[in-house]
Write a structure and sequence with these properties.
Largest sheet: 7 strands, mixed
Distance between the termini: 23 Å
Radius of gyration: 18 Å
Oligomer: single chain
Strand content: 15-25%
Mean pLDDT: 90
Low-confidence stretches: 196-202, 207-211
Structural class: alpha/beta
Shape: globular
Amino acid sequence: MKLLLASGSKTRAEILDKAKIPYEVVEHNVDEDEAKISYAHLNPEDIATKLAELKAIKPSYQYENSFVIGADQVLELNDTIINKAKDINEAKGQLLELQGKNHKLITSIAIAKNGLIVWKHTDTSNISMRELNEKQIDNYLNNIDKSILGCVGVYAIEQDGIKLLNKIDGDYFSILGLPLLPLTQFLWQNNILLNDCLLYTSPSPRDKRQS
């Protein structure tokens, strides 16, 4: 059984790499902004779950008999969702809003096979950000890898972002974007981990096999 990661996140890929879990990266082709509009009536946890499911299901139609991982994170501050910053100015505004406050980081992953969700898991981490002044935020933003702008909350705890936080109550891998222990439990139960008989080859899309 092939394992596919439908995500462009380097961090999620690195988590699987370091765990030596065989996988291939595929595109999920989901318009996240459009999807969030359609799910706007849902609570933040359900939005994260629905987005993860959508990202898993959509490519699973193309790659038959494969497990496709979809994942999403939602940051909730006072019952309001804060989306990824579009630029450095929006990132600064978000950090000014988050500083000195507690927020929730909701991480959801789902696995689909042939268009059906076969497994899903959601974690919620409670995170407290330090009280920061504008100068400190400017200094942080001027020195980070700009790829961090693609992270909700504008921080990566495995990098400079840990300096912004003073309390974390949650699973480390979930905060990074991929709850690894629940995922490995699923993979174990489906004979993808430590299976000497596993023959892993790159996936072939249906349209290519039919052409």
